[in-house]
Amino acid sequence: MDSMNGKCLCGAVTFTAHGVDTNAHSCHCSMCRTWSGGPAVSVAVGSVSFRGEENIARFASSAWAERGFSKQCGTNLFYRLKEPNHYIMSSGPFEDQTKFTLAGEIYIDEKPPTYSLAGDHSRLTGAQFLASIGQAPPRQVNAGATKLRSMPAMSDRHNKAAGPTRSLGNQA
To answer: 2-157 has which fold?
Structure first.
């Protein structure tokens, strides 16, 4: 695990991340795709320090997690578990992309047909991913016509149960 630098598109926010897990993971759930405009590709970090933090907007996407992005240019920066203050950084803003390897994909069953990611790595459905972190899949009622989600929004389940030492898609 290395320390790595990054910045948003306009440079209003810069960061140094320590303990960067260079095994990147991609999520295809609807929340991550809506947030990122495509599959979200992220890496777990041990810690991160920001400069220009006043230019970071934070959106509480659940009771326990938030997403951060540049107020100036909109660059997606991170997904953060509020407790225990664990950051999962978007891989795109890192200056050196050559260190990252795609190690896995989750919610492959929600991936649209418009793209496919190459390589030999794990590909888990939403149910498989949830089982891998000890969570039950969402419960269906009325023969599937109406979904009752007993779990929070998909993307916000990514590391809730896995805790700070589990990276996205270890998957998560």
So the answer is: 2.170.150
